[in-house]
Amino acid sequence: MREGRLLQTGWRLASDGTGVYASEVIDAIRNDAGEHLGFSLALRDNSAQAATEQALEAARRALFQSQKLEMIGQLTGGVAHDFNNLLSAILGNLELGRRRLPAGSDVTRFLDNAIVGAKRGAVLVGRMMNFAREREIDVRPVELPALFEDLCELLGKALGPETVIQSNFPDKLAPLRIDPHQLELALMNLLINARDAMARGGSIRLAARNRRIVAGSDCAAVPGRYVQLDITDSGCGMDTETLSRAREVFFTTKPPGKGTGLGLSMVQGLVDSVEGQMSIKSRPGKGTTVTLLLPAAMERAAGELADDEVETVDVEDHQERKLRIVVVDDDALVLMNSAALLNDLGHETFAHSSAEEALTFLRRSKTRLPVDLVLTDHAMPRMTGLEFARIIRDSWPSLPVILATGYSEDVVDGNDIVSARLQKPFGLRDLRATITAVAEGSAARNGAGGAAMMPPSRVSAILR
Ligand SMILES: Nc1ncnc2c1ncn2[C@@H]1O[C@H](COP(=O)(O)OP(=O)(O)OP(=O)(O)O)[C@@H](O)[C@H]1O
Ligand SMILES: [Mg+2]
């Protein structure tokens, strides 16, 4: 009435119930004498234009996000470099300070901890620098288990304590022909996706095996030797719509700031560049398995397998029996390390960061014990390794327990509860010897009627 005309745009509901993005012009109609007679309304359907604008806005936001990521990459390189210098100063001075302390001083322990922390920091910074550097693609033979072990160290606690990673790499896994940094990045993306899908924690299982694709098989890959890697989570899974779009660039279901939707498209890009395959199986509520088929490297170091052996060699063929082992340690790094050593020996591991968690895992399977052996740290908050071993002896008398103890811990009793002890830090050799002895002992006593205790002669042979 006051201005004579009103322009406005907005969503309106059409008579058939559909939404229409409309531009409206409302004019006041007056007669020659200036008296107001009424209004006229002209309405134009602008839905198509609105949709285009929305898409443009989404693309702008995605571009901004990816530029931000690139910037973080560049910044990381710069900051990491300065930070490395700071760390060198910290480390150098800590070590100098430590040397001037009288022997046996209380303070030494604190300084040692600080030195270990700073060294870990230096490793981390080195990785970040590597990660941020703009690099030529560098395809070469890559040992997956070693790369994965390093990656776990880097990811460490980033995945959170509720996420357990179980890995199962056969002893004679063929090396891959791939750029190790890109592979690291791809695995990181897949692990983080799996973690994000498990809001209340859970386990991520990694399994790898050698595969040969022959001409005429129904697999789309070029015939040749491959390594198949399955990454399985017990998370929320995906519905068909999400699953069909998951690999699209910038497709994400995560809230702003949580995901850019670049992860899987990057993994797909890597897989394509090495002529591998990626498939994703997922159902809502039933978890997800991402399977990567990556080409194996042709060149082999001296002393490795001949061509034909690759397909047939499996963990089972290894001279030692493959065991399923529960590993418990409250220090994430130590836990990863023990699991990696055991995997290296061809065993399958179930890693847990506390005795309670491991007990829940053991109790979950009602009928048959899911494992052959337990390797546990002793000094842990809430429940010690020895207390844990006692519960195991009472509940599953035939399940052997190896107790790992540090130098300073003097656990005198418990010889009747644990099957063997292991001094920390232990290496592959110690670990293998102890496991072989315990496995033999456990087979022997199960054969002899399943007595809970190992014969004393056996115990003293194993206890060091
Ligand atoms: N393991 C999984 N379980 C359930 N959904 C998944 C899983 N992996 C991927 N998705 C779905 O696919 C989408 C795309 O994944 P992608 O890794 O490409 O991007 P993002 O994780 O959302 O973001 P970014 O990886 O860039 O941080 C995710 O948003 C999620 O909806
Ligand atoms: Mg992702």
Automatic annotation (TrEMBL):
Catalytic activity, reaction form: ATP + protein L-histidine = ADP + protein N-phospho-L-histidine
Signal peptide bounds: none
Alphabetically ordered keywords of this record: ATP-binding, Nucleotide-binding, Phosphoprotein
Domain Response regulatory: 324-439
Highest taxon listed in the record's lineage: Bacteria
One Pfam family in the UniProt entry: HATPase_c
Top enzyme class: transferase
All residue ranges annotated as the Histidine kinase domain in the record: 78-298
InterPro entries per record: CheY-like_superfamily, HATPase_C_sf, HATPase_dom, His_kinase_dom, HisK_dim/P_dom, HisK_dim/P_sf, Sig_transdc_His_kin-like_C, Sig_transdc_resp-reg_receiver
GO molecular function, one term: ATP binding
EC number(s) reported in the record: 2.7.13.3
Annotated SUPFAM superfamilies: ATPase domain of HSP90 chaperone/DNA topoisomerase II/histidine kinase, CheY-like, Homodimeric domain of signal transducing histidine kinase
4-aspartylphosphate carried by residues: D377
Protein name per UniProt: histidine kinase
Upper taxonomic lineage: Bacteria, Pseudomonadati, Pseudomonadota, Alphaproteobacteria, Hyphomicrobiales
